[in-house]
Amino acid sequence: MKDLMGMMKQVGQMQARLKEVQEELERSEIEGQSGGGLVHLTVDGKGVVRRVRIDPSLMKPDEVEILEDLIVAAAADARQKSDSEMQAKMAEITGGLPLPPGMKLF
Questions:
Q1: Which of 26, 28, 59, 88 is the most buried (most CB within 10 A)?
Q2: How far apart are CA 16 and CA 10, in angstroms?
Q3: Domain for residue 50, yes or no?
Q4: Does 95 or 40 have the greater pLDDT score?
Q5: What is the percent of the chain with per-residue pLDDT over 90, rounded to a whole number?
Q6: Which of helix, strand or coil describes residue 106?
Q7: 95 CB contacts (<8 Å, ≥6 apart)?
Q8: With b meaning 16 or more CB within 10 Å and e meaning fewer, what string describes 9-44?
Q9: Residues in contact with 59: Cβ distance below 8 Å, sequence separation at least 6, in sequence order
Q10: Coil, helix or strand for 60?
Q11: Average confidence (pLDDT) over 69-83
């Protein structure tokens, strides 16, 4: 019974730490880029776009499609970095315990 109580205490501590990390990630800003740094896109921890910076050299009317593709690529880069950061934080909390595939805690 003592082991069960200890485990429950650990679960409670893990949940509290998880909440802290979730709030920390929501406040964080992650920058993605594409086009060799010509397009920068900053998102918050929830994936909401906060800033877009585009090098003026891309502002050509006949190259709008390229610019659109670069913005999408920068957003994908930011999302990948955000997911990696979240996984790293989760590994810290769970002590490296593997979570089942597809299971997200937030």
A1: 28
A2: 10
A3: yes
A4: 40
A5: 39
A6: coil
A7: none
A8: eeeeeeeeebeebbeebeeeebebbbbeebbbbbbb
A9: 67
A10: coil
A11: 92
Q: Which residues contact 77 (CB under 8 A, 6 or more apart)?
A: 32, 33, 34, 41
Q: How far apart are CA 102 and CA 41, in angstroms?
A: 26
- For the stretch 19-69, pLDDT in tens is 888 888 888 899 999 999 999 999 988 788 899 999 999 999 998 999 999
CATH number at residue 55: 3.30.1310.10
Q: What is the CA radius of gyration of the chain?
A: 19
Q: Which residues pair with 34 in a beta bridge?
A: 39
**Number of domains present in the structure of the chain:** 1
Average pLDDT, the chain: 83
Q: Could you list the residue range(s) of the whole structural domain that residue 24 is in? A: 2-94
Q: Residue 41 gets which letter from DSSP?
A: E
